[in-house]
Amino acid sequence: MSRQSVARRRLLGMIRKESLQIIRDPSSIAIAFIMPVVLLLLFGYGVSLDARHVPIAIVVEQADGQTVSLGAAFSHSEYFSPQYFATIQRAQKAFDAREVFAIVWLKNDFSDHLRRGDSGGIGVIVNGVDANQARISEGYIEGVWQTWLLSYIDQQDLNLSLPLTMQSRLWFNAAVSSRNFLVPGLIAVIMTLIGAMLTAMVVAREWERGTMEALLVTPIRINEIIVGKLLPYFILGMGGMLLSVAMAVGLFGVPLRGSFLLLVATSALFMLVTLGMGLLISIVAKNQFIAGQIAIIVTFLPAFILSGFIFQIDAMPEFIQWLTLLIPARYFVNILQTLFLAGNIWPIILANAAALAVMMLVFLGLARHKMHKRLQ
Predict the structure, then answer these.
(1) pLDDT digits (tens, 9 = 90+) for 158-195
(2) Residues in contact with 351: Cβ distance below 8 Å, sequence separation at least 6, in sequence order
(3) Please, which residues have CB within 8 angstroms of residue 198's CB and are 6 or more apart in sequence?
(4) Which backbone phi and psi does 234 adopt, to 5 degrees?
(5) Which domain holds residue 98?
(6) The whole model's pTM is what?
(7) Alpha-carbon distance 184 to 344, whole Å?
(8) b/e map of 194-216 (b: 16 or more CB within 10 Å)?
(9) What CATH number is associated with residue 139?
């Protein structure tokens, strides 16, 4: 029997061993398939950065045709759920009790100011505790006001004019849905957790059970051990990725404008990075509990906070921005959001894929360097 044939049989035996271990260990199946479903459902339905049906108070001190018309504009907007008050004091009490998020104050001289062509008769108060929500709500209030004012000028055939009007178009996410932004990024976080958690306890489990010693005295080589251990988990992780993409497109309606094959290829590259990180952790820790904790701290949390999945990297302090360059999920989030929402934008995809390729070589190389066929 040739040397290549013997090596092939050793490798196949190692792959079969790990595959049987996956079948016997329900936690691996749960991490790969149940966890993505739970996280996608939680984030897809439970987390939203959109401003919809925001409760606002509309104070009408003197009702007339103009105030009724402007109030109706807010009522017909999907972004607001208005409540009407006769005095600013009553609205202020509702505002302080957080029953409303903002106040639109139409003063008793609103119509007079409107005829003179100024906005002195209207005031807006917004709760600034949630800065992001405040900015979004303030922009929507301004939009309703500008739209109503243009309509009023046109209907009354007045010579009033706004200082400057801007026409804008939204590309890549015309619905302005945060779900289209969050779900692709969440796939990167899920794959980070799957790859790191699945492999972080692989070698550590072998050391705890005492089977690593028996494995080291066999003729199998280190490269064959690494490939045999990683390949079954790679297939399992890619299955979890495909399930996540199917849920993103089929359940949440996130558009996939790029190439599906390119998505699979870049996902495979990122999965190898996370598997390499998990394997390196397991080799160093040699304890399942410690390996799992380290995997969460150094892979999942940075992927969640520093990848641009939720928090904009450009808004972070400069030192943290430099630190994000060490987070593999940052590059994969860029790839996913590009492929899902924009399409095959090759400069972005190739640059981020190159960074992932370098990280894959680094982590797998370190794992190979740290794994020896000796007990100490």
Answers:
(1) 555 544 444 555 566 665 667 788 888 889 988 998 88
(2) none
(3) 28, 31, 32, 233, 236, 237, 275, 278
(4) -65, -45
(5) 54-156
(6) 0.79
(7) 15
(8) bbbbbbbbbbbbbbeeeebeeeb
(9) 3.40.1710.10
